[in-house]
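Sample 3 of the quickstart, ligand flavin-adenine dinucleotide:
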Amino acid sequence: MIPGSFEYYAPRSLSDAVQYLTEHKDDVKILSGGQSLLPLMKMRLSKPGYILDIGRISGLDSIAAEGDSLIIGALITHAQIEDSELLKKQCPLLPQTATTIADVQVRNRGTIGGSIAHADPAGDWPPAIMALDAEIKVVGLNGERWIKGDDFFLGLMTSVLEPDEVVSAIRVPVTGNDKTAYLKAAPRSSGFAVVGVAVRMAMDAAGICSRIALGITGLTDKAFRASLVEQMLAGKKLDTKLIESAAVESTRNVDVIEDINGSSEYRRHLTHVYVVRAIQAAMQG
Ligand SMILES: Cc1cc2nc3c(=O)[nH]c(=O)nc-3n(C[C@H](O)[C@H](O)[C@H](O)COP(=O)(O)OP(=O)(O)OC[C@H]3O[C@@H](n4cnc5c(N)ncnc54)[C@H](O)[C@@H]3O)c2cc1C
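Result:
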C-alpha cells in the first residue's frame, strides 16, 4: 500500500505544467484530487516517475457565469459543485449529479477535471456533460482547444487528451427552463454506477418534448448518448407508454458489460427502468 518513489513538482502556472508534461511525457501523472490516482499508485497499478501537482495553479478553481454559459475550473471539487448556489440556480443537473458521487470524503477531494480526464466507464460526470452538450477545455504545448463532451471519451480510461495536455475547464450551458435529472443505481460499497442516466429536456406549454438529450454511464467501456431514445421522443407528447418503448432503445446495439454487480441482461433491464425513471423525474422537476 506504499507507492513507488517519484519526483514531485507543483508549478504555479499552466505553461510550466505543460512544459513539465512535455519533458516527462511517458512517465508523468497529473495529480488533482488524487482519489483515483493515489489508490492506483498504492496498489502499484500505476508507477509514475514524476508527479505534477496542479493544485497550486491559479485560475482553475472558480465557477463563473459567462454569457449563456458557466465555466467550471478543472480543480473544482465534487463537493463545491454540490454546494454551488450559482449551479443550483443555473445548471442544477451538476449539483444533483455531484450528490450521487461516492461519499463526503471523496467528494471533498475529487475534482471534476480529474474525473473527466480519468475517463472511468462508470464515472458520473461523463453522462451529465453529454446530456448538457458541455465542452471541455484542454491546454497543451500547441495552445488550447475545446472538445465536445460527446467526442472526448474513446474507451476504457482513454480519451482524446494528449500526453502534454491538461484539462483546465468545463463549459456548460445555463439550462434555464429546461428540465434535468440524474439517476443512478449503484452498490453501496463503491458508489460507482451500475447504470447512471442523465437527462436534459425542453417541454412546451402543450406538453410536447421539443428537445431531449440523454447520457448513460456504467454499461460499456465509456459513457454514451442514447440517440435512438432521443430520436423517438423529440417532437412528441410524452406519455408512459411512449417513454417505456423508447427506453428499450437505450441499449440497442450496445455491448453491455457484465461483472460482479450484474449480468448484461440485468444491466439492460435496469437501464430501461432508469431511463424511464430519469425522464419522468425530469418532467416532474
Ligand atoms: C471510494 C471511491 C468511490 C468513488 N465513487 C465514485 C462515484 O460514485 N462516481 C464517480 O464518478 N467517481 C467516483 N470515484 C472517483 C472520484 O470521483 C475521483 O475524484 C475522480 O475519478 C478523479 O478525480 P481526482 O481529482 O481525484 O483525480 P486524480 O485521482 O488526481 O487523477 C485521476 C487521473 O486523471 C489525471 N488527471 C487529473 N487531473 C487532470 C487534469 N486536470 N488534466 C489532465 N489529467 C488529469 C491524473 O493524472 C490521473 O491519471 C470514487 C473514488 C473512490 C476512491
